[in-house]
Amino acid sequence: MADQFQSSETPPLVTVIAACYNQSRFVVECLESIWQQSYRNIELIITDDCSQDDSVALIQKWLDSNGADAIFIAHEKNLGFCATLNDALRRATGEFVSIISADDVYLAGKLADQVALIEQLPAKVGVVYSDCWQMDVDGKALPQKFIEAHRKFERMPEGDIFSTLLEKNFIPAMTSLVRRQCYETVGFYDEELCYEDFDMWLRISAHYHFAFSPFISARYRIVPSSITRTLLHTVNAEPLRSNFRIYEKCLSARSMNRDQRRIITDQLESIAEQMYALNQSGRNYYLLMLSWYAPRPYTLGMLLFSLARVPFARFSSFVSWYGSIRRRTGAVARL
């Protein structure tokens, strides 16, 4: 695709990574949305992480029918999303990188708008992002855009957004355009995590600024059966472990002010509390680490009760009883 753009001044090369896993129903629509971009200086890398449907055959058919100049990486065994993205990033040569899952689609002008914007900004700006429309599995538009479904802002965050991100992720990954230099600075995706984007945004925001584009650049498909959605929206220990690891890493990412450290320790406490409440295996390790990071009476109490194999419901009842006693004596209610 890169050689299809002719100009007296060649625009910067953008590496687009389209990642597929069992998304045969949607992958062609995704690839078409990339192919139809008005911005033409694109290095296209398509990955398939050992799909069990006919995704690979459909991708190859699409490549053959369009004569697309693309790198197609088809894994013979499933590596996981983070490892799959890293495999593609090692081959990326573009100045900028844009990543999309094969069940989402770009809107026309996505790359042209974002490249034009980031080219006008200082090198300190590492990421441009936008909002996106949401759709259901059949492509029907949903009423809320992505960001408003996750966070409420009077004004979209820009510049140093590290503290804002600490509270909760809100950036739709498929709308982003990232300087490849960011990956060279902070490293690739953490393959010990079960999902990729939140950790990467935090690591990049510790070194670079973010810019918001008002141009809505993509459509995000909510697929109830997707692996990521199943992991993140059901009772499952994997995302809790990943979240704990992400916040642990933040403590060493850069010097923290008091408010940032409070946000992190509050998040770690919430995660460990959920693991205790769900009786997840390995919970005592996370409660022990929490007590190290935040040695408060409540966190130490959770650890001791969990080590004694006391159910979380009984621990909560004890905290409520203890709090009522403290209130009657005019002391602080919480442990």
Describe this structure in words.
The chain has about 325 residues and is of the alpha/beta class. The protein folds into two domains: about 1-225, Spore Coat Polysaccharide Biosynthesis Protein SpsA, Chain A (Alpha-Beta Complex); about 235-330, no CATH class. Helix content is about 45%, strand content about 15%. It has helices spanning about 25-35, 55-65, 80-90, 110-120, 145-150, 160-165, 180-185, 195-205, 225-230, 235-255, 260-275, 285-295, 295-305, 310-330, and strands spanning about 15-20, 40-50, 70-75, 95-100, 105, 125-130, 135, 175-180, 210-215, 220. A seven-stranded mixed β-sheet has the order 3-2-1-4-8-6-9, with helices on both faces. The chain has a three-stranded mixed β-sheet with strand order 5-10-7. α11 runs antiparallel to α12. The longest helix has 20 residues, at about 260-275. It is globular and about 75 Å long. Residues about 1-10 and about 230-235 have low confidence and may be disordered.
In short:
With 335 residues, this protein is an alpha/beta fold.
At the fourth level of CATH, the homologous superfamily of the largest domain is: Spore Coat Polysaccharide Biosynthesis Protein SpsA, Chain A
The SS-based structural class is alpha/beta
What string gives the helices and strands in order?
A: EHEHEHEEHEEHHEHHEEHHHHHH
In the CATH scheme, what's the topology name of the largest domain? Spore Coat Polysaccharide Biosynthesis Protein SpsA, Chain A
* Rounded average pLDDT: 91
Would you report the number of β strands?
Answer: 10
Hey, roughly how much beta strand do the residues contain? 5-15%
CATH architecture of the largest domain: Alpha-Beta Complex
Helical percentage: 40-55%
